[in-house]
Amino acid sequence: SEGELWLHQRRLMQPAFHRRRIAGFGEIMTGRTLDMLARWQGRPDPGQPLDVAEQMTGLTMAIIAETMFGAHVEEEIQRVSQAIGVLLADINFRFQVPFYPSLRWPTLRNRRALAAMHTIDAVVQGIVDERRRSGEQRDDLLAMLMEATDEETGQGMSDKQLRDEVVTIFVAGHETTAVALTWAFGLLAQHPDAEALLHAEVDAVLAGRPPSVADVPNLLYTRRVIDETLRLYPPAWITNRQAVAEDVVCGYRIPAGAVAAISPYVIHRLPAWWPDPERFDPQRFAPDAAHERPRFAYMPFGGGPHQCIGNSFALLEATLILAAVAQRYRLRLPAGAVIKPKPESTLRPAGGMP
Q1: pTM, two decimal places
Q2: SS3 letters for the chain?
Q3: pLDDT tens by residue, 88-118
C-alpha cells in the first residue's frame, strides 16, 4: 500500500491494534501456550528433542487464528496454514535465486503458489460471507476490521482490501513472533546466567499461576530478554524503501526510484551504539541504558509512519509465551548442536532449534 490507499487503510486498522484492544487477547495467548505445554508433558518419550522452531510456529499460528477468526474455524485454518507454508517457501526461494519466472509462467512452483493463493482467498472470503449472513457479533480482529470505518469519510474496506489485510496480519502475525521466540530459547540455553534471572523474575511475579496481561508491567527482565533477542536476531532482518525523489545520504547519491535496502540485523550490531555487539545482554534495555542510543539504532519493527502496526500485539504475545514456558521448563540444546541463522524472508535458524 502506498500514498492515499495506505493512509486510508492505516486509519481504518489502527483502532483494532490499540493497546487496550490487544490486551483483550492476552487470555487466548496464555491459554494456547498452556495447551502446548500440556502436550509437552504428555509426550511418550520426553528424552527426544523437540524442534522449538516448529513448536513456536504451531503455537503462534493457533493464537493468530483464534484472535483473528474466533475458535470455530479449525478445519479452514488448517487449509490456510498449509497454503501459507507453500507461499512462505516460495518467498524464500525468491530470496535465494536471482532470476525466476514470473507467476504468469505455468511452472510447477508457480502453479502451487497460485493454488495456495486461491485457497487463502476462498477460505477468507467464505468466513467473511458467513459472518455477514449470520449477523453474529464477535470481538475478534476480523470483526474489528469488518466494522471499521474512516472517521473522515465514513467509508469501510472493500472485500479485496479486507482480504489483503487479513492475510497480511495472519502471515506476519505468526511467523515473526515464532522466529523471535525460537531465538530467545536458543540464546537462553546458551546463557545460563540470563536464564536464571528470567526464572527468578517469573517465579517472583507469577507465584505459580499462569501469566496474564496484568503481570506484563512487572515482567521487566522477561521483556528485556525479548528486546535483546530482537536486537541480535530480528526476524524482519532486512527491508527496503524506494526513493520517491533524488536524495543524498552520507555523501552517497540516491537516484529517484532507487531501492534502498535497510537491515536491522546490521544496524543492531553497530559498535558505536552497541558495545560488544555480539554479546547477549538483556540489561542493555534497562531504563538507564536506553536513552544513550539514537532513535533508529534499534528498529526490529521498522520505523516511521510505516512501522509495523502489530508491534504491541507481538510484544505482548512474546512476553506471555516466554513467561509461561519459563515457569515450567528449562530448554537445553543437544550436545554439539550448532545453531546458525538462515537469512530468508525471515531470519530463522538453519535446521530448526532442537
Answers
A1: 0.92
A2: CCHHHHHHHHHHHHHHHCHHHHHCCHHHHHHHHHHHHHHHHCCCCCCCCCCHHHHHHHHHHHHHHHHHHCCCCHHHHHHHHHHHHHHHHHHHHHHHCCCCCCCCCCCHHHHHHHHHHHHHHHHHHHHHHHHHHHCCCCCCHHHHHHHCCCCCCCCCCCHHHHHHHHHHHHHHHHHHHHHHHHHHHHHHHHCHHHHHHHHHHHHHHHCCCCCCHHHHHHCHHHHHHHHHHHHHCCCCCCEEEECCCCEEECCEEECCCCEEEECHHHHCCCCCCCCCCCCCCHHHHCHHHHCCCCHHHCCECECHHHCCCCHHHHHHHHHHHHHHHHHHCCCCCCCCCCCCEEECCCEEECCCCC
A3: 888 888 878 878 888 888 899 899 999 999 9
